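User:
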Amino acid sequence: MKKILLKIGFATLLAGAALAGWIAYDLYTPQKTDIREFDPDEVARLDTAMWRSYYSRERLKLYSQLTELLEKQYRLNFWQRQLVAFYAAKATFTFKDGKSRADYEKALPDLEKFYGELRAVSTTEFDANQAARLELEWWIVHRQRAQYRDGDLADALAATAAAVYNRPKEDFLEHGRLRAAAMTIRDTAAEQGGVTEEDWRKIDLLLHESWRSLHRAVNPK
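Assistant: Predicted structure:
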């Protein structure tokens, strides 16, 4: 019995060391990726799915979809995308539970970590903290849309994309307009009693158009 327990303990130790090595390799091995290269239709599909999970408060499902997005859009390693998805999901639900700007700003540290991790692997240089602040700003504009003018949400979305891809905001105005239109459909339907499958179909179509527009903007011919 003692020998069996020793063998089990040794095997467990080896497995733990292997796991620790894998995690360390994924997190600390230098990796670079071109964030401009992605499948816009696949990103749009996941974007729609994440919206649905977010509004249904399905946190684990949203986290799983985030990890898939980070693999498909940014090609992050397994453990790296677990960490980055954790930052994104934590920021998302910190914001969702907020009631005021002071509450919303509690999501900023995790957004900065999220964009910091993306900047570390991106071949495109950008200011991660600025991207995080702009991301939070469009979240706030969307949440408090009654306090803003028409077009402010689309403009804020375009500004965020411009910061991430380090290009002029004008390149992303169509992307912002289409994404804002999708949000308007969701918000209006929710206020009128509920978002139907037809509403989600329209939202999905707009998000596909939006991500295709962004892809064209960052990959000019």
